[in-house]
Amino acid sequence: MSELAWTAAAYYPLAVVSAVLPWVNAEVLMLSAVPLVDTPLGLGALVCAVTAGQMTGKGAMFWVARRAKGTRAARLDSALTQWRTYAVRRPRSTVGIMLVSAVFGLPPFYLVSMAAGVLGVAFGRFLAIGSLGRLIHFGTIAFVPHMVWSGL
C-alpha cells in the first residue's frame, strides 16, 4: 500500500470522530494534511477521505436522530411538526439549508444532520447534498493553502 493510501486511511477515522465529537475540529484536521502531499491529486485524495469520514459520522448521527424515541416536550413536538411540514412543502429550501450548512457550517452541520434525521429527510438526499457541500468545504480549506504554499 502506498504512503498516500496509508495517510488517507489514517485520516478517514479521524474525520469520523470529528463528525461526531464537535470539539474535534475537522478543519484543523484537513489543514494538517496539506503539507503531507506534494501533488494536487494526492491532496484531492485526502479531501475525499476526510469528506467520506465526515459523512460517515454525520450519517450515523442522522440515523440515531431518526430512530430516537422518547418523551419530548409538547413545545418541541409542536416545533418539529411545523418544521416537518415546512420541509415537505419546500423541499428545495430544505436542500438549500443542508447545502449551505455543509459548505459554510451555518447553521452548524452537526445540528442540521440530526434535524434532517428527525424531520424525515430522505437519507440519499441528505448524503448527496451533504457530501457535495463537505467536498466543497474541505476542498477549499485544503487547496487554498496548497496553492499559496506552492506559489500558484
Shape, principal axes of CA atoms: elongated
> Number of helix segments?
7
Q: Could you give the order of the helices and strands?
A: HHHHHHH
Q: What kind of sheet is the major sheet?
A: none
Count the domains: 1
- Which secondary-structure class do the elements indicate? mainly alpha
Name a few traits of the molecule.
0% strand, 7 helices, 152 residues, mainly alpha
Describe it for me?
The chain is an all-alpha fold. The protein has one domain. Helices cover 81% and strands 0% of the residues. α2 (26-33) packs across α7, α3 (40-67) packs antiparallel against α7 and α5 (91-104) packs antiparallel against α6. It starts with a helix and ends with a helix.
Briefly say what this structure is.
With 152 residues, the protein is mainly α. The chain is built from seven helices and no strands.
Task: Please render the helix and strand layout as text.
Layout: H1 3-20, H2 26-33, H3 40-67, H4 74-89, H5 91-104, H6 109-119, H7 123-150
Helix pairs in contact: 1-3, 2-3, 2-7, 3-6, 3-7, 4-5, 5-6, 5-7
